[in-house]
């Protein structure tokens, strides 16, 4: 099962100011998410951004918001109910790639709802996090057991390119290597 750029949606979930401050290692999650978002834009992957109760948790981090379309606000933990994620198989989107916060709440509930619709869900393990390690690890196990595909940001970017002969490969590789 592979992610195809033309039939994939990248959903960046709730990387917001107040939440990011309390999640250990969030800087790396943000870096990987920005890398995914930039590559998605280069490769024509559709992108959505959500914010959980922005009045309480603040806006998306500026580095994330800068490389994504405007955020859609939500109150439900699952982003699958948002208009931006109102996708069904056969409607042009076959898979959704999830990145963001927190793994055991909004990522988990969004993934479970999307899986129930019959979509393929990729959870990017180095672009998701929780405040507590046990919540993060348990959620990843539950996601995998529920049918989500667990992957890394680098693996996904190379998967989107398919090979070094892809016309945008050098640019995507530059996002990974920093050059």
Proportion of strand residues: 15-25%
Query: What is the count of structural domains?
Result: 1
Per DSSP, the total helix count is 8
Approximately how much helix is present in the residues?
Answer: 40-55%
Task: Let me know the average pLDDT.
Answer: 95
Look at the structure and give the CATH class.
Alpha Beta
Q: How many E-type strands?
A: 6
Strand order of the largest sheet: 3-2-1-4-5-6
Keywords:
single chain; 179 residues; alpha/beta; Rossmann fold; 8 helices; 6 strands
Question: Could you characterize the architecture of this molecule?
Answer:
The protein is of the alpha/beta class. The protein has a single domain, classed as Isochorismatase-like (Rossmann fold, 3-Layer(aba) Sandwich), CATH 3.40.50. It is 42% helix and 20% strand. It contains 8 helices and 6 strands, in the order E-H-H-E-H-H-E-E-H-E-H-E-H-H. It has helices at 17-20, 26-43, 54-57, 62-65, 103-116, 133-145, 153-161, 169-177; strands spanning 8-13, 46-52, 72-74, 95-101, 120-129, 149-151. The protein has a 6-stranded parallel sheet with strand order 3-2-1-4-5-6. Helix 6 (133-145) links the parallel strand 5 (120-129) and strand 6. The protein is globular, with a radius of gyration of 15 Å. The model has no long low-confidence stretch (mean pLDDT 95).
């Amino acid at each position: 099962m592979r992610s195809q750029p033309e039939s994939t949606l990248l959903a960046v979930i709730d990387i917001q100011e107040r939440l990011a401050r309390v999640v250990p290692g969030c800087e790396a999650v943000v870096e990987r998410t920005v890398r995914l978002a930039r590559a998605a834009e280069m490769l024509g992957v559709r992108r959505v951004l959500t914010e959980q109760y922005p009045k309480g948790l603040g806006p998306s981090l500026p580095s994330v918001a800068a490389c994504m379309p405007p955020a859609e606000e939500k109150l439900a933990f699952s982003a699958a109910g948002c208009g931006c994620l109102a996708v069904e198989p056969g409607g042009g989107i076959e898979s959704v790639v999830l990145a963001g916060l927190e793994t055991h709440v909004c990522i988990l509930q969004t993934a479970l709802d999307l899986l129930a619709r019959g979509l393929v869900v990729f959870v990017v393990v180095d672009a998701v996090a929780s405040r507590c390690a046990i919540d993060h690890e348990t959620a990843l196990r539950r996601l995998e057991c529920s049918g989500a595909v667990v992957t890394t940001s680098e693996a996904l970017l190379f998967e989107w390119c398919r090979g070094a002969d892809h016309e945008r490969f050098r640019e995507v590789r530059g996002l990974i290597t920093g050059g």
